[in-house]
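Changelog note: in this version the structure field was regenerated for every chain. One regenerated record is shown below for reference.
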Amino acid sequence: MPNTINRVRCAGIGLALMLAASAPVAAADLGAKDEPIKLAMLEWTGAHVSTHIAGQLLEKLGYKVEYVTAGNFPQFSGLADGSLSASVEVWMNNVGDIYPKTLAAKQIEDIGKLDLKTREGWIYPKFMETVCPGLPDWTALNKPDCVKALSTPETAPNARFLDYPADWGSRAATIIADNNMPYTAVPSGSEGALVAELEAAEAAKTPLVMMFWGPHYALAENDVGWVTMPPCKEQTNEHCITPPDVDKIVWSGFGAKWPAAYAFLKAFKMDAGEQEKMMLAVDKKGEDLDAVVKAWIDKNEAVWKPWVDGAKG
């Protein structure tokens, strides 16, 4: 989940070339192939899909891969000290203060876009347009009847806004405050809790406004509207929600240690529609993540083979 900053590549590339000149060709291409590449596994299923596709393809290149559970902000500490090797689906609107600090310190490297077509903002079940006439315009949320419908014992007299889990980071509470909206942002417990509440609200026609993002399988199964957002008090990530970029971030020593893996990850892309299909299989149909990813890889060699072949070259 999701500003483009200058990349710092020269040191890693230079060292990779030095290694290539001083070692046998195969070893130089792969680098430290006996040391596992540790990929960050973030909380949402889309990131699981992207990460496991990257992981299985890295294994085809000849690498060992480990998947390490990591929080959205804490991952940058791991990437900075090398205890994590790479994170392939970093939503650039939720990177906090630690990302620019570790990037400026040259502890991490941003190696480019994942090319994942994204959407993020405030959503509501479509029936809410009768509860809060005027939606999707955000001013409809401030009308007394709408506030009353969304109020809960936990938030009264304010309305309740269902937010991301606390450790994901979010701009919702800031935007609510910026625009003096009578809402209280209440963090959800997890991605699963967000989806469960959306589905329950749809089924029971319970009023709900919440933070959400796409791609996500839930958007294919629930009829939702997207709020036309309030004006930004400041043109910053903390005060605005815009379609987020999704980048790939590696430990600063990654390119020198695993040159072919570095080239592969720079080329690696993820299609949002394909990702949603795999998320649906995992989250709703209960299929095994690795099996779903393997099936995609088996059917899509024409997509990924250029990435792998280019890395070998």
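Spot check on this record: The first strand starts at residue 37 and ends at 41. Residues 73 and 95 are 6 Å apart (CA to CA).
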